[in-house]
Structure formats: structure tokens, C-alpha cells
User: What shape does this take?
Amino acid sequence: MQRRPVGKAHAGLWEFPGGKMEAGESPQAALARELHEELGIVVADADLVPSGFAVDRTTVLLLFACRHWSGEPTALDADALRWDVPARLAHLPMPPLDIPLVQQLARGRDPTGDH
Assistant: This one.
């Protein structure tokens, strides 16, 4: 999870890294690009495993699990990063659409096959 910095919408709230798709991008390609921009890591599209989604009136968030990347995750577009199990992440303040994603992770099996 990354914490949104002061000056951005939802400042101080924790969210999954990601962002908007650009024209012609697949969801996996968009996430790989966003992970590079926000965390400085390189991820292959094939290493992104669909694991959940959340929807409101105007937005669809797709959640992907990733176990393989190159580089060291760094908070390039956030003021902090946090790794934790879903049950503990559920206690963090976060934007409304991230809440069901954490709940889905807490209820489900690991979509990457790791247990």
C-alpha cells in the first residue's frame, strides 16, 4: 500500500499503487507502467494475476497480485509505503473503493498460488 501525499486528493489515505489506463493499453500494461512510475519497479504483464475488483458510479478498480518484479519499491509518488497482511491493512484509512479490495484479499486465497 502507498500513502497519498499532502496536496493530492485523498491525502493521508492508503491505497493500492496504480492509476488510469491510457488509450490502447490493457489493464496489465497500464498497471506495469504505473508501478514503474510510482514505485520504480519493472513488472512483466504476465506476472500480474487478476485478484479482485471494486466499482462505484464512475470508477472500476481492478486488483492484481504480483510476486515477481525487478527493482526495489520506492515511494516515488507517495509519502510512505507499507507491506502487510490483508487483515491488518483493513485497519488503515483508505479511499472508499480500496476497502472492498482489501476485504476481498482477506477472504480469498492468494491468486498467485502462494499460500
In short: The longest helix spans residues 27-39. The chain is about 25% helix and 20% strand.
